[in-house]
Amino acid sequence: MNNDREKSIVFIGFMGVGKTTIGKLVAEKLNREFIDIDEEIEKEYGMKVSEIFNKIGERSFREKEKSVITSLCEQKNKVLSLGGGAFLQREIRKVCLSASFVIFLDLSFDNWKERISQIIESRPILQGKSIDEIKELFYKRQEIYSNHHLKVITDNQDPEEIAKLIINKLTILM
Ligand code: S3P
Fold first, then answer.
1. How far apart are CA 170 and CA 167, in angstroms?
2. What's this model's pTM, rounded to 2 decimal places?
């Protein structure tokens, strides 16, 4: 088998775009293990992400995020969902782009903002920001996510359809 076909698949994109939901579906279809990086970090600390930010601080969270991701993305045949801020770290980008297959899940800001109320409580990065500040962050992050192997636009499609489309693309691209 071609080595590239065994590479782990890594989902990136802004908070709340559906990395975990879609990642799980893709993993199921490919018969691979799915790992949510935030959940791994939460297990290690025994705390939710927002608690880690409050009690230990974002800097420690980012360090842990880097070590968890760099060790996992070099493993074969996994599907990983990264936290939306992970790709801001150059080392994470570098290792994921060379060792794994990176899929950027994109969503328009207009559709994304409909989801704010469902996600804000568990996302410390969004808290205390105005909608304009969040919008600015959203667009700033798009530049970082432009480092990928495949971009999938998720507007107006359900997760199952998106997962199927990804599987089709992977058979051509990987
Ligand atoms: C973050 C995104 C979150 C989580 C943490 C920080 C960010 O993950 O890692 O709250 O900086 O964008 P999701 O993208 O899964 O929400």
1. 5
2. 0.97
